[in-house]
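User: Here's a structure from my thesis project, written as C-alpha cells. My advisor, Dr. K., wants to see whether a designed sequence matches the one we expressed. Can you design one independently, without my sequence as a hint?
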C-alpha cells in the first residue's frame, strides 16, 4: 500500500517535528480562543503565554488518556505488551509499568481476545499459588496468549472450596504450586486425582522445587506435567506460555 510505504519512510525525527508543529498550532489557536484574544496578540502579553501553558497541559493529559484507550484497543485486538511497547518506543516492561492491568482477568468479561483461534468461550484457569509476585507474572504471561478467566487461590483448601462451590465453572487447566500453607500442592494433587468429578482436569505442577522426590511424587499422584520455575523472567514467561499453548491450544480436552 502506498500509504504504508510512505509512513515507513518517515523517520522518528520527522514525525516529532510534524507533531510538534501540529500540536503547537492547535495549542496557540485554543489559547487564543480561551482568552478571546486577537489572531496576533502582543508578544509580551503574559496572559497569552500562561493560557498556552494551560492548554498544553490539558493536551498532554488528553494525549495520555487517548494513548491508554489506544493501548486497551490494541490489547483487545490481540496485541501483547511487546507490540504495544514497540509502538511507543519502549520495552515490554516499560509498557507494563505505564499501562498496568491491560490484560486483567477475573470472573468478569475478559478484556483481551486470543491471538490465535477464537474459542467458543474464554478458557478458565485455576492458579493455586501463594506467592503474589509469581501469581502476577503467571497472569501476565497467560494474558498474552489469549482470553483467560483466571482465578487465583493461595492454598489447597481454598482450591477445593472453589472447585466444589455450586455453579463454579470447571477449569480447563489447573496450575499448581507445591509449597503452600494449610493444604500444600502435594496433598491437593492426591485429592484431585482421586475425585471422580475433578480427576480429568489437567494439572500442571509449576514450582521452584527440583527435588527428585517431589518430581517422582507428583507423577505418582498423576500430575499431567511437572515444570520447574525458571529464575530468569523471560524464561519464566516462556515456560508458562508453553504450558498454556500445549494444554489449551494443542491437547484435546475431554468433553463434559
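Assistant: Designed independently from the structure alone:
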Amino acid at each position: 500500500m502506498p500509504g504504508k510505504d510512505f509512513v515507513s519512510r518517515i523517520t522518528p525525527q520527522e514525525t516529532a517535528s510534524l507533531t510538534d508543529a501540529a500540536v503547537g498550532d492547535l495549542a496557540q489557536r485554543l489559547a487564543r480562543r480561551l482568552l478571546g484574544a486577537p489572531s496576533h496578540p502582543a508578544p509580551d502579553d503574559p496572559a497569552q503565554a500562561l493560557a498556552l501553558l494551560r492548554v498544553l497541559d490539558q493536551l498532554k493529559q488528553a494525549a495520555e488518556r487517548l494513548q491508554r484507550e489506544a493501548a486497551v484497543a490494541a490489547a483487545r485486538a490481540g496485541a501483547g505488551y511487546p507490540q504495544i511497547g514497540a509502538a511507543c518506543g519502549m520495552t515490554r516492561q516499560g509498557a507494563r509499568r505505564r499501562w498496568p492491568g491491560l490484560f486483567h482477568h477475573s470472573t468478569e468479561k475478559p478484556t483481551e481476545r486470543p491471538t490465535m483461534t477464537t474459542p467458543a468461550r474464554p478458557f478458565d484457569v485455576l492458579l493455586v499459588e501463594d506467592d503474589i509476585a509469581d501469581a502476577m507474572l503467571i497472569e501476565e504471561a497467560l494474558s498474552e496468549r489469549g482470553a483467560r478467566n483466571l482465578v487465583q487461590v493461595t492454598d489447597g483448601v481454598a482450591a477445593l472450596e472453589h472447585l466444589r462451590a455450586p455453579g463454579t465453572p470447571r477449569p480447563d487447566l489447573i496450575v499448581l504450586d507445591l509449597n503452600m500453607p494449610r493444604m500444600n500442592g502435594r496433598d491437593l494433587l492426591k485429592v484431585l486425582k482421586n475425585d471422580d468429578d475433578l480427576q480429568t482436569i489437567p494439572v500442571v505442577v509449576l514450582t521452584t522445587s527440583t527435588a527428585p522426590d517431589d518430581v517422582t511424587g507428583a507423577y505418582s499422584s498423576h500430575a499431567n506435567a511437572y515444570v520447574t520455575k525458571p529464575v530468569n523472567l523471560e524464561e519464566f514467561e516462556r515456560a508458562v506460555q508453553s504450558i498454556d499453548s500445549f494444554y489449551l491450544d494443542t491437547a484435546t480436552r475431554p468433553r463434559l
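When you compare it with your expressed construct, this may help: The mean pLDDT is 78.
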